Amino acid sequence: MIRSSCRARIFPLFLRPLALGVAVLPLLCGCSILGVILYKTEGPAPIKALYVPPKDQPMLVLVESYGSAGDIEIDVNNLNSDLQKMMMDNKVAPLIDQQALEKLRETDENGFRNMTVDGIGRALGARQVLYVNVTNSQLEIPSGNQNVRGVLEAQVRIVDAATGQTRWPHDSPSQRVEVKTPWASNTAPDAQPQVRDKMADEAASTISRFFYDYKPDTETEAEKVNVEN
Prior knowledge:
Layout (H helix, E strand, L loop, with lengths): L1 H41 L16 E6 L6 H19 L8 H10 L1 H6 L2 H7 L4 E13 L6 E14 L5 E3 L6 E6 L3 E2 L5 H18 L10 H10 L1
Parallel strand pairs: 1-2
Antiparallel strand pairs: 2-3, 3-4, 3-5, 3-6
Helix pairs in contact: 2-6
């Protein structure tokens, strides 16, 4: 009788860890399935802004390129227009009208070249300046290849218009940006202008997304952003 009673108590204790594992397994599987469902319905998790500019301070978007001429000016103008629109669409900050910037430049072109970034901002009533210096912009066309792609490199920073100090990035003079478009056929007459448009659009998207939360289009993009940041 004693031996039988002991066996009855010991046996459930022996199986208890196994029973616990069996009980937890459906919960783990449920979490995994739930994660898959959320990803399928909601997509990748949002990417946080690297810096959130004050929304009560007027901002000037200023894109230029020192010591460059020719086709790069086309890319600078395209990038400036696209970036202005994306910053406005995502309500990053109240933006200074670009027509005011053009008027200031045209009034005294030589004087404008000698103005500092913060000086331009103050002249137009801005409290902060999103300054983008395009250091390289070109179309790559390999010899003997009928393909083309665009490559654009730039340095980005936000400048305090009152002090001239860099508000962002905090730990370096500027944030480097490099954009390479996918290879495209170079056989159509409008192939190169289309590549230039895409290059400016991708660069504007990359830069504007530094300043607001957004959902990446794919999990691969989300992983790339996390690695780069």
